Amino acid sequence: MKKAMLTLCAAAAAMTVGLTGALGGSQATPGVSAKIIKIGGTFPLTGAASSYAPIPRGMAAYFSYLNAQKGHKRGINGRQVQFIYYDDAYNPAQTVQQTQRLVEQDRVFALVGGLGTEPQLAVRDYLNQKQVPQIYVSTGATTFGSDQARHPWTVGWQPDYQAEGALYGKTIAHDNPNAKIAIIVQNDDYGNDYIAGFKAGLGHKQDQIVSTRGFQVTDPSVASQLTDLKRSGADTLMIFATPAKTIQTYATLARIGWKPDIYVNSVSATDAFMTTAVKLAGADTVNGSISVEYLKDPANPKWASDAGMQLYRKIMAQFLPDANANDGLYLYGMAKAYSFAQAVVKTGSNLTRANFMNAVLNMTDKTNPFALPGVVIKTGKKDAFPISQMKMIKFNNGTWTETGSLVNGRGK
Amino acid sequence: MQRVRVDAALVGRLAALAAAALFVGLYPLFVSSYKASEFVLVGIYFIAILGLNILSGYNGQISLGHGAFMGIGAYTTAILVSKYHVGELWTIPLAALVAGTIGFLFGFPALRLSGVYLALATFGLAVAFVQLTQSFHFASFTGGGTGLSIGLPKTPYYLTWGIAGGMFCVAWLLLRGRIGRAFTAVRDAPLAAVSSGVSLAAYKTLAFGISAAYAGVAGSLFAMRYGFINPLEFSVALSILLLTGAALGGLGSLEGMIFGALFIQYAPGYGEKISKTAPSVMYGVILLAVLFVVPGGAAQLLKRLRRLLKQAAKPLYSRLGTPAVETAATSTRSEK
């Protein structure tokens, strides 16, 4: 019987050759018929990053709204939108698996809005090799726009982190050229992106940076970093950190009694996170913080009578009645879905992946009802950064107020 | 005569295995490339929990850190391929070696711990692995939080299943011999084992080493399948998933692991269909239900089924005058 077992082993070993053959592709564009356009995306619906889950839901709500229109306005150019999104739990391995599922099994036309720097990096080569559009990714990592030459099928959407950092740099160099600047930064690609942009924005004022301290996402505390920064004699603090660490920074500032001018990156500057920061650190420390925005903020009462905001509220009430409509991430999703619809319209009657990418990279859209008035979603053959305009905002007593006019973060 | 009767049971078992091998061999010819790529993962998980079963099922040591050993294997392959341009296939034995060595060394502190304390220590390993690989200090080596890319996702179908088949045979040969008996003796009666000259330290660390080497091979294949690895992929959740799969397949049964692997790969997907917000809850409920009904996992279920069938067939056999076969089911063989 040992012999029999060994024979089986030998048979198993004999199989250890070759790979499965690739499936032959069909002629027609996948995911597109006369009546339907099928797209997909991966998002963290469960796990530590599941607070981003409103994004795909907001997108889906906007597509449902389009699909429910009457007559020639129904869907996009008469095609119903099917938006399939899967949970990747912010795990890049699952992103690969689910993206393959969308491309090879569901045969979607394009991937729209996929979330997360690492998860989307994990599928970028695959999608480009398969020539499947990976557009409007939900991350501001600069590489998704700047690597256009090597990844022609990938396009970002929101202002990239470098552009945002540059804007802070330019603002400080202009408004407060003698500021002594301290930086607390997340020690990874995310933080490095911001630093690179910030230094470029400061230009010859780079010497004004008196101290920079980094932390790991996994560090339990940022107290020692902030104590060092305070000791450096700085009067201005840049916070380049994700939400949890930003809140921790505010709390620590209150504890060590340091009140510099604070600039905080937009990722962490949403209404919900700032409210938590105020609870932990007190309004005194948080008030006066400066950040940027490019979309309308549903939590801000000033938009109550705005047509775009009313459309947003109407869609939320109809398709997501139980959701918290003040969460800006739903609006973020809708704004993105709107951009996608515009790109499909722009592509015109011959909807192939290549034609679609040409349209995506040749947009000038001033009509997005969810973006700040005046924001132009603009791309070109060598510009894969759809949104580059932002507005400086200042936090005071629970709300953000605009302090300046729209500026282009990528402008020279 | 005794031999012939025993062989009857073995033939049945071999036939089932051959059928399974045939199914695995032909599966990709009938399904889409995506389904085949999913089934590669079943093979990868199968290898990983075969190893976990050697440790937990046969040697009685629990591990909540096997995801980390898979991670070590995956990083070995990714670093060798991306930084030193070693051929992918060569990295498989190296991944086994690296993970196995680290597992063997981890076996020493494990000697002083048992039960829930060992579970906690291995849990710590799983947590530390993610933090270490993410850490900025090793980023030039591990790629930090961004991870490492070694190319495009692939479907190494026959490679994975060939190795899985081979490693199944190795585990089977290993466990049915002297080493296997020593493992179970250490598990069931450590005092008796020591007094019969079995070294606790040697066999406990050996079990850890072998088990980790299996996980390392699984991790290496995992890296090839995805072409991109990142610390987040080897989180504590993976370790827990592996242990759940092993328990569900049936600790102490090698064949049962195939069911455990199928569960690990497909159950979360079905959970997601039932509830989009909390698939892991559904998955936990299913797990609890199974553990309450058949604590021995799928293997026990199969055994029960087999016994039922035999009892049903018994009157038939006696009428036909065929020799009774049931002895085979209950016989515990000790001969080589």
Could you characterize the architecture of this molecule?
- The complex is a heterodimer of chains A (412) and B (336).
- Chain A is α/β, with parallel strands linked by helices and 412 residues long.
- In chain A, 41% of the residues lie in helices and 16% in strands.
- In chain A, the strands form 4 sheets. A 5-stranded parallel sheet of chain A has the order 2-1-3-4-5, with helices on both faces. Chain A has a 4-stranded parallel sheet with strand order 7-6-8-9, with helices on both faces.
- In chain A, strand 13 and strand 14 (399-402) form a beta hairpin.
- In chain A, helix 2 crosses helix 13, helix 6 runs parallel beside helix 7 and helix 9 packs parallel to helix 10.
- The relative contact order of chain A is 0.12.
- Residues 11-26 of chain A have low confidence and may be disordered.
- Chain B is mostly helical.
- Chain B contains 15 helices and 2 strands.
- Chain B has a two-stranded antiparallel sheet with strand order 1-2.
- Chain B is globular and about 70 Å long.
**How many whole angstroms does the radius of gyration of chain B measure?**
21 Å
Number of helices of chain A: 14
Uncertain runs of chain A are 11-26
Residue windows where pLDDT falls under 50 for at least 5 positions of chain B:
322-336
Strand content of chain B: under 5%
Strand order of the largest sheet of chain B: 1-2
Oligomer description: heterodimer
**Mean pLDDT figure of chain A:** 89
The largest sheet of chain B, given as strand count, sense and whether it forms a barrel, is:
2 strands, antiparallel
